[in-house]
From TrEMBL:
This is Enolase-phosphatase E1. SUPFAM superfamilies: HAD-like (SSF56784). Mg(2+) binds at D16, E18, D212. Bifunctional enzyme that catalyzes the enolization of 2,3-diketo-5-methylthiopentyl-1-phosphate (DK-MTP-1-P) into the intermediate 2-hydroxy-3-keto-5-methylthiopentenyl-1-phosphate (HK-MTPenyl-1-P), which is then dephosphorylated to form the acireductone 1,2-dihydroxy-3-keto-5-methylthiopentene (DHK-MTPene). It comes from Cuculus canorus (Common cuckoo).
Amino acid sequence: MGALPVPSEVRAILLDIEGTTTPIAFVQETLFPYIKDNVKEYLRTHWEEEECQRDVGLLRKQALEDSSLEGAVLIPLESGSGEEELERVIQAVVDNVHWQMSLDRKNTALKQLQGHIWRTAYAAGHVKGKVFEDVVPAIRKWREAGMKVYIYSSGSIEAQKLLFGYSTEGDILELFDGHFDTTVGPKVESESYRRIAASIGCATNNILFLTDVPREANAAEEANAHVAVVIRPGNAGLTDDEKSYYSLISSFTELFLPSST
């Protein structure tokens, strides 16, 4: 690792979040436990709201699609009024969310509800988004050099904006030109990166994707995007083959932009 020259055709830097801009520990030890501990209270408080009902509807539909999977939890419709019936349905939603999270599912239905729960947490000051200290200064430098900067994460776009809008560095949303989540496609499929390039309005080889996950890097590379794998404390280790194959950085400051000279 050390200085990594950015190819001259690169016009946009696409960033993963977990393990790249943000410690995995923040996601695993702060964000996810918050959902598990607070989902029931959130549902009880917001149940009558249209947004909450939409979220539950999406989860119910996802649960039907998952019904053949081991341990899947279906979400019944309310078959009457009364506190007991409401509690029964809410508990099914809670059990479904816990089951999905135990499998590290990344579908839109789950991510949408998680994003809305986190929104209340960030707004109340219960949670602040954590970013590595090299992230903000490096992105400012890239932008000064004329580079566009985008986020691509399996967390919903709303969850991304909350993390950066209520971050330990303050509101840093202005640093990003756009956000992508799994509605554009899974991060391990090359087609997703082609869709992102089309959305940005550039060729895939105008993009440099930074991620900690070799499978994602591989998918981006298959789409002809440039990639670098980010080594951060707490990230999963790489095989010797992966270490020798991929360009590696341990800090955003190691990216060397020709246009900034």
